[in-house]
Amino acid sequence: MESKVTTRVGQECLQGLMRVWFDFERQLGRVPVIQRLERGRFTRADYRTLLLHLRQQVIEGARWITRGASSFDRDFADVRSMVIGHAREEHRDYEMLEADFVAAGGEPDEIREAQRNAGSEALHAFMMYRASQPNPVDLIGAMWIIEGLGQKMAGDWARRIDEATDGDGRDTTFMRYHGENDDAHLDKLYALIDRVCRTQRDLQSILRTARVVARLYALQLEEIDHG
User: Which one, out of 88, 103, 134, 217, has a CA that is 20 to 30 A from the CA of 209?
Assistant: First the structure.
C-alpha cells in the first residue's frame, strides 16, 4: 500500500505507529481469550462473552470521534470533516454486533444492559478526555490502533471463530464487515499523517496516545476473564 506520507516528521510518525502496532500485537497474544481463539479452544460461550465486552467500546466510539471533531478549530476544518464522516459511517455498528450476539444464542437484554468492564471504563474515559482537548491531533494514534485491529485482525478472528464454533458466518458479520472495510479507513489515516503530524511535539503526542489506547484495549480484553 502506498502510504502517501512524504514529510520527514510524517515518516517518523508512521514508523513509530508501526512499532506501537507490533507491540500491541504482542500484548494481544498474551490475552487469555485471544490465546484460546488462536489455539482452537474457543467456545460459543467465549464468543458471546467477547461480544458482550466489546459492545461498550463500539457503542462509545462514535461519541469520542464526534467529540474530537467538535474540538478542531477552523484551521483544521478538513480534518474535522473527515472525522465527522468517519463517525457517521460507524455510529450504528453496535447494532450489527448486537445482532451477532443474538444469532450466537445470547439474549438482547443481556448485551444491552451489560456494564463496562474496567478496561472499557478506562479506555472510554481516556478517549473522551483526549477528544475534548483543543485540536486533538493525537487521536490519529487511537484510530491507528482501533482501525488497524479491524483491518488486520477482524477477518481472521471471524474465520477462527466460525471454525471453532462450527459457525456458518451468520453470527460473525460485525467482524467480517470490519475486516473487509477498514482498509479504506486506514487509507484516510495515511493521508492525514502529513497533515496533523508537523512537529516533534505532534509526533510524541500521537505515539503516546497510540500506546495508551493499545494498552487499554488489551486491558479491556484481559478483563473478559476477570469479570
Answer: 88
Q: How far is CA 57 from CA 3, 145, 191, in A?
A: 28, 13, 25
Nearest-angstrom CA–CA distance, 32 and 218: 11
Tens of pLDDT, residues 177-225: 887 765 566 677 887 888 889 999 999 999 999 999 999 999 999 999 9
**Could you read off the pLDDT of 115-144 as tens digits, one per residue?**
999 999 999 999 999 999 999 999 999 989
159 in a structural domain? yes
What single string gives the DSSP state of each residue in the chain?
------SHHHHHHHHHHHHHHHHHHHHHHT-HHHHHHHTT---HHHHHHHHHHHHHHHHHHHHHHHHHHHT--GGGHHHHHHHHHHHHHHTTHHHHHHHHHHHTT--HHHHHSPPP-HHHHHHHHHHHHHHTSSS-TTHHHHHHHHHHHIIIIIHHHHHHHHHHHT--STT-HHHHHHHHHHHHHHHHHHHHHHHH--SHHHHHHHHHHHHHHHHHHHHHHHGGGT-
Q: Is residue 3 part of a domain?
A: no
> Is there a domain that residue 89 lies in?
yes
In total, how many domains does the chain have? 1
**Residue range(s) defining the domain that contains residue 114:** 8-225
Find the angle CA(13)-CA(80)-CA(176) to the nearest 5 degrees: 70
Query: Is residue 1 domain-resident?
Result: no
Polymer length in residues for the chain:
227
Cα–Cα distance between 206 and 4 in angstroms, integer?
18
